[in-house]
Task: inverse folding
């Protein structure tokens, strides 16, 4: 008996660690396929031995609650669904009864609460057997499609999935700032975004909510189809579904479920949910501690394809992290030719013991993403890459918070990193050179036309090569060069935000600009004199250290210093006519939410013109919080601290009364 139980303890511990990494930190340590294999193995052992351990994930709903979010009790347990890969089992489950088949979306499950026709609260599924969730009302309010008011006025709860589409996932990864690693999957990004403490950072993540279950009992809606129709009529985006009528046989079920094509679906999905249409019948079947018996999840069978491993494709990202992609001979999966699979990290390389010429098995995770499933040969002859493919510098191994090992190029002037530095410098909210896209800058850096920020202003020197390059030409040169010449005058705030001092962005740039009156020479002299930047609003010790470290870095100086000879700073002019009765003069003011008459930068500029001290976070030192539409946690914090809050209209009324509107 002991021999049977000890492996069970090991499996439970392994699955528990995987649950914590997946649900608590949104950073999976094993693939879904590997997790399912381990879970099936544990389930088989439980059946064979008749023993179920108290911590077994076959009995409990996976999920952990982050300590930094408020825990709230669910009105009903938010249980999972029993899973199968067998169409025969699906047909047996349906048993000829009317049923609903819908996508099993791969995001973060949420429960939304409504009362009096108003949205009042959002909870994650969370942990504690599905009984306790995290309060994420502040982030749900800024999702794309959560209805805030609805016609239905009775109190009720709706369950659904917070997801990010594949298209928006690609868009987000393409717009990341420097030092941000690309996200690996929409599920992790959605889960992390929903559970952020600061909802303003969630707003730009294109999160959507798909409703799939009316949690609250209502006899008026006796069928699943009627429930979904009711939700749609009240403004909810309902998960796409198909209806299986009474007496549907296995062939019809196969045809119906085959119509769900994940390759053509715009959102991440890891299977289908099949549920009885008769609500009363479904609920009469009860539940286990893990799942409800009224529904079942179909997980697609992973079809394995054998091919030959050809080697690694190595690429350095803008963060310095080196991505590893396995190359193999072409194999056709689901009608498409596949010859590459992302390997994620060095631990994956070690696990598969790869070597050129090895026979490997490939599958498409959720029928979309190519993944390596097995190495039949396991020669273990493949070595780690040692040099950066971009600059030739030796690579180093770093260990992430979850213990995974990654390769990094630490050369600060590696061309892979430099492209992103130039993109950052040229962006609209920095030096505003819009025609210099990332793709164009990558070519310009690669050809050696620009090695520092100053070279951008000397494009005339490489005009001949520029014009001769395919996709560039005379017209593009004239347009880009004209734009650059029009941007030779800038504020010190723009320049500081553009050159990429760690943690010193637009807000800090404005504070430095104001303090030094737009005088760059004064800023440099202050650094040389050991100026203490912590005395400035919102500047901590880390930002202070970063400025001094950046200034001493000779390699960094090679990047930004040449630009000083090409640009002219617009220095601040003292406003001698400032209205001394201005109520915001000398006050610390924070703005939050979407304002009608001001952009984010516009309100900051307005506050500076009033002599106020714009800040990015609410604290006990904040005098006013200007509140726009969809305000989040800053408003809650301001209320808890007793900070005066103003609507946009109240803000402008105060300016009118002071004669400074």
Result:
């Amino acid at each position: 008996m002991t021999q049977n139980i000890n492996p069970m303890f090991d499996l439970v511990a392994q699955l528990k660690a995987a649950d914590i990494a997946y649900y608590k930190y949104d950073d999976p340590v094993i693939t879904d396929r590997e997790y399912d294999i381990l879970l099936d193995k544990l389930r088989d052992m439980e059946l064979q031995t008749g023993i179920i351990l108290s911590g077994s994930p076959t009995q409990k709903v996976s999920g952990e609650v982050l300590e930094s979010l408020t825990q709230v009790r669910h009105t009903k347990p938010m249980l999972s669904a029993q899973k199968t890969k067998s169409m025969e089992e699906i047909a047996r489950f349906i048993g000829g009864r009317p049923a609903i088949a819908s996508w099993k979306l791969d995001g973060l499950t949420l429960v939304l609460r409504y009362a009096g026709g108003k949205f009042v609260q959002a909870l994650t599924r969370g942990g504690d057997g599905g009984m306790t969730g995290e309060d994420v009302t502040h982030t749900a309010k800024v999702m794309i499609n959560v209805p805030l008011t609805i016609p239905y006025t009775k109190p009720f709860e709706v369950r659904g999935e917070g997801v990010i589409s594949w298209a928006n996932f690609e868009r987000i990864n393409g717009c990341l700032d420097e030092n941000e690693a690309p996200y690996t999957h929409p599920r992790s990004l959605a889960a992390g975004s929903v559970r952020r403490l600061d909802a303003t950072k969630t707003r730009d993540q294109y999160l959507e909510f798909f409703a799939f279950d009316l949690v609250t009992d209502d006899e008026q809606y006796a069928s699943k189809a009627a429930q979904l129709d009711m939700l749609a009529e009240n403004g909810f985006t309902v998960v796409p579904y198909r209806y299986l009528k009474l007496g549907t046989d296995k062939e019809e079920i196969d045809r119906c479920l085959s119509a769900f094509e994940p390759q053509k679906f715009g959102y991440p999905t890891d299977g289908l949910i099949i549920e009885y249409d008769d609500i009363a019948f479904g609920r009469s079947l009860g539940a286990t501690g893990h799942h409800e018996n009224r529904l079942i999840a179909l997980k697609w069978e992973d079809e394995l394809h054998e091919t030959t491993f050809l080697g690694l494709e190595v690429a350095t990202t803008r963060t310095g992290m080196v991505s590893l992609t396995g190359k193999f001979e072409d194999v056709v999966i689901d009608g498409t030719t596949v010859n590459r699979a992302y390997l994620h990290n060095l631990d994956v390389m070690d696990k598969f013991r790869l070597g050129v010429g090895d026979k490997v098995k490939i599958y498409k995770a959720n029928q979309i993403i190519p993944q390596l499933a097995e190495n039949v040969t396991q020669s273990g002859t493949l070595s780690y890459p040692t040099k950066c493919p971009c600059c030739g510098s030796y690579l180093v191994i770093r260990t992430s918070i979850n213990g995974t090992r990654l390769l990094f190029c630490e050369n600060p002037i590696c061309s892979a990193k430099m492209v992103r530095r130039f993109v950052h410098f040229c962006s609209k909210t920095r030096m505003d050179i819009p025609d210099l896209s990332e793709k164009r800058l990558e070519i310009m850096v690669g050809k050696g036309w620009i090695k520092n920020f100053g070279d951008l202003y000397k494009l005339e020197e490489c005009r001949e090569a520029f014009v001769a390059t395919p996709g560039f030409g005379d017209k593009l040169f004239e347009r880009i060069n004209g734009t650059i010449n029009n941007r030779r005058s800038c504020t010190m705030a723009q320049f500081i935000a553009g050159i990429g001092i760690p943690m010193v962005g637009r807000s800090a740039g404005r504070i430095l600009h104001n303090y030094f009156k737009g005088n760059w020479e004064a800023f440099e002299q202050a650094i040389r004199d050991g100026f203490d930047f912590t005395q400035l609003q919102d500047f901590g010790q880390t930002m202070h250290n970063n400025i001094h470290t950046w200034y001493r870095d000779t390699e960094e100086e090679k990047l930004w210093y040449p630009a000083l000879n090409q640009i002219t700073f617009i220095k601040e002019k003292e406003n001698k006519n400032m209205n001394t009765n201005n109520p915001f003069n000398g006050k610390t003011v924070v703005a939050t939410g979407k304002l009608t008459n001001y952009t984010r930068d516009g309100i900051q500029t307005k506050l500076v013109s009033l002599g106020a001290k714009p800040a990015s976070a609410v604290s006990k030192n904040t005098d006013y919080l200007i509140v726009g539409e969809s305000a989040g946690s800053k408003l809650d914090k301001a209320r808890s601290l007793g900070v005066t809050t103003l609507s946009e209209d109240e803000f402008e009324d105060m300016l009118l009364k002071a004669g400074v509107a």
